[in-house]
UniProtKB/TrEMBL annotation:
Domain (DUF447) ranges: 4-123, 133-182
Protein name: DUF447 family protein
Gene3D superfamilies associated with the record: Electron Transport, Fmn-binding Protein, Chain A, Hypothetical membrane protein ta0354_69_121
Domain of life: Bacteria
SUPFAM superfamilies: FMN-binding split barrel
């Protein structure tokens, strides 16, 4: 199973970074002891890749706020953060759950690189608030946008109306704002996609 998370890391100079990353987890039976080891597959070129390779610590932040995914993936956004317990990178102040980890293996010989981490500390801060289909659609659009240079443009253009319909129908303020920000990002890259008519309300990190 892959869970979409916000990974915080820190550079050798102490600069904090947040970015969405898919965490690979083994399937476990409910009720079994919690997962102790996690895996990430990291493409070279990201700050997260450099930080984890150099400083070997991170925090996995679980959030259902898709605006944070879009801001950190496409706009170098930095959400409010608080100090961690066992590692140097801080955690997202509004994460629902956080897992602090240390890197036990970083293998850059494959692409994407293979990273294995050991969970050092866990904290549950908030409960599950239910699925919203718009959140999935925003994540799909955002991940496609981070790969705009490699994906065939037709693939994004073809999928866009379906994502837009789901976000317009089922999304709230933050989901719709986040989706339009993905559209703005693509527009800046010369990929024109329709936006959801926006009523001017603002949502911020
Ligand atoms: C939902 C989502 C999941 C992502 N998962 C990964 C991943 O597993 N591995 C990866 O290398 N990039 C992944 N990305 C792309 C990075 O988040 C993106 O390249 C980002 O700009 C890296 O930021 P950084 O340079 O601050 O580390 C994902 C993006 C999104 C939106």
């Amino acid at each position: 199973m892959i869970l979409e998370t916000i990974l915080s890391s820190i550079s050798v100079d102490g600069i904090v970074n947040f970015a969405p990353m898919g965490m690979h987890l083994p399937d476990t039976d409910p009720g079994r002891s919690p997962v102790k080891r996690i895996v990430f597959r990291l493409y070279p070129g990201s700050q997260t890749y450099e930080n984890l390779k150099a400083t070997g610590q991170g925090v996995i932040n679980f959030t259902d706020d898709v605006l944070v995914f879009v801001e950190t993936a496409l706009y170098s956004g930095c959400p409010p953060f608080v100090p961690s317990q066992k590692v140097r990178p801080p955690s997202m102040a509004h994460a629902r759950t956080i897992w602090e980890f240390t890197v036990t293996c970083f293998d850059p010989s494959t692409e994407p690189a293979f990273l294995e981490g050991k969970i050092e500390h866990r904290e549950q801060k908030g409960g599950f608030e239910g699925f919203c289909r718009a959140q999935g659609a925003v994540l799909e659009a955002a991940i496609a946008a981070t790969r705009w240079q490699w994906l065939p443009i037709g693939k994004i253009i073809e999928s866009w109306p379906l994502w837009l319909e789901v976000v317009e129908k089922t999304g709230g303020n933050r989901e719709q704002h986040a989706f339009n920000k993905v559209g703005n990002f693509l527009g800046e890259k010369g990929i024109q996609v329709p936006r959801i008519p926006w009523d001017g309300r603002k949502a911020s990190l």
